[in-house]
Design goal:
CATH class of the largest domain: Alpha Beta
Structural class: alpha/beta
CATH superfamily of the largest domain: Metal-dependent hydrolases
Strand content: 15-25%
CATH topology of the largest domain: TIM Barrel
Radius of gyration: 21 Å
Helix content: 25-40%
Number of helices: 16
Low-confidence stretches: none
Number of strands: 16
Length: 421
């Protein structure tokens, strides 16, 4: 279990609180709650006070607190990467080259690439190998300021491997400072065994895998790739309703390739998030906004696929709570770079720097159902904090794709310090 610390962070050029206990919408995403010359007090892993330095620092310096002097540096909540596929075996570097040559996804699939390639490698990998690979990626995510990550299964498509992925993620959660939120994504693609029988595969998931996932408490959420040529609206609804009956929260890959109506389905079912949304309709976006569904946008994937970006500006203006995530995966965006995601969002999606910070912190926490626990520097929340090497949050996208995080604190404990690495 992660130990809990007692820490005083003082003299911060900015404490960017992102204050709130629920997702921010519309103009609310601009409000970062900045405290200049700020102090954060953490006791037993929980934030106790956030104020100006000259008001409270002296009260704690002689009370046994560890002291971190953040003079000249910005302090923010730890980033929440709320959509990743970080646990897998093998790689798809050759496939990246094929895409550069202009090959379509279907042509890549015929050559043995795509998700099914990763499925084959992951099925063959031992739990020990998956654990070691996952540990390295978590280390890298931590160095980029990620203190909580959502990890999806979906590279097994059978009982044994899906359970194996979720069990390894549970072990990683216990062994590593980064909290791992687990999502079951058995409906990632139709496996070869069920070619042209996707209805039967959905039935297999519902009857044979989902009950074990729920009974063993292996996942918090169930997800589905609702997309033309993958899983239909009807199939997705059937799976998600059954998952809800079993006590799982709901997420959905929606409208990435075609405007199928995944956003509308997310609103109908009240999913915690709908992700991708590159082709989401105006009606779907407005319905999501009305139902309080968080839209998770993944600009890194659009960048690597050379696709049009999701309409973040329209979504925010329609009062939809927008989050950002990497979509870290071996095929379409093999990167844990939060600053690159933020730069793409401000340069190509019409988002302000302030909106990207909200989207990577409080709103990302809302996309995994934890906005009441993490995602902001508020009294009563977990002491998950990052310290930049620069005096302002604006350096995050300005240092394009480059990591500006100098220190990472998890539950009041310094768990990463670039200076000492």
């Amino acid at each position: 279990m992660m130990r809990q610390g007692t820490l005083l962070i003082k003299n911060a050029a900015q404490v960017v609180t992102c204050s709130g206990f629920a997702a921010k919408k519309g103009k609310g995403m601009l409000d970062l709650g900045i405290i200049e010359n700020g102090v954060v007090v953490i006791k037993d892993g929980i934030i106790q006070e956030v104020e100006k330095s000259d008001e409270i620092a002296g009260r704690y310096e002689n009370e046994g607190y560890e002291v971190l002097d953040a003079r000249g540096k910005a302090v923010l909540p730890g980033f929440v990467d709320c959509h990743t596929h970080f646990l897998f075996a093998g790689d798809r570097a050759e496939e990246f080259s094929w895409r550069l040559q202009g090959l379509s996804y279907m042509e890549i699939l015929k050559r043995g690439g795509g998700i099914l390639n990763t499925v084959s490698e992951t099925r063959s990998a031992s739990k020990e190998k998956l654990f070691a690979t996952g540990l390295k990626l978590l280390d890298r995510m931590l160095s980029f300021g990620v203190t909580t990550v959502e990890g999806k299964s979906g590279y097994g498509l059978d009982y044994e491997t899906e359970i194996k992925q979720l069990e390894v993620m549970r072990e990683l959660d216990a062994a590593h400072p980064v909290d791992v939120v687990r999502t079951y994504l058995g409906a990632h693609v139709v496996p070869r065994k069920y070619k042209n029988r996707s209805d039967s595969y959905i039935d297999y998931i519902i009857e044979s895998v989902l009950p074990a996932v729920a009974e063993k408490n292996l996942a918090e959420f169930c997800d589905v790739f609702c997309e033309r040529g993958v899983f239909s609206i009807q199939q997705s609804r059937k799976l998600l309703l059954r998952a809800k009956d079993m006590g799982l929260g709901l997420k959905i890959h929606a409208d990435e390739i075609a405007p199928l109506g995944g956003a509308e389905l997310a609103a109908e079912l009240g999913t915690v998030s709908a992700d991708h949304l590159l082709r989401a309709s105006d009606e779907g976006i407005n319905k999501m906004s009305a139902k309080g569904v968080t839209g998770v946008l993944l600009p890194g994937t659009a960048f690597c696929l050379k696709e049009e970006y999701a309409r973040a500006r329209y979504m925010i203006d329609q009062n939809l709570a927008v989050a950002l995530a990497t979509d870290l995966n071996p095929g379409t965006f093999f990167s844990e770079s939060i600053p690159l995601v933020c730069a793409l969002a401000v340069l190509h999606m019409g988002m302000s720097v302030e909106e990207t910070v909200t989207a990577c912190t409080l709103n990302a926490a809302a996309a995994i159902g934890r906005a009441d626990q993490i995602g902001s520097i508020d009294t009563g929340k977990s002491g998950d904090i990052i310290v930049l090497e620069y005096p302002s949050y604006k350096y995050i996208p300005y240092r394009t794709g480059v990591n500006s995080v100098e220190k990472v604190i998890k539950k009041g404990v310094l768990v990463y310090d670039r200076i000492s690495h």
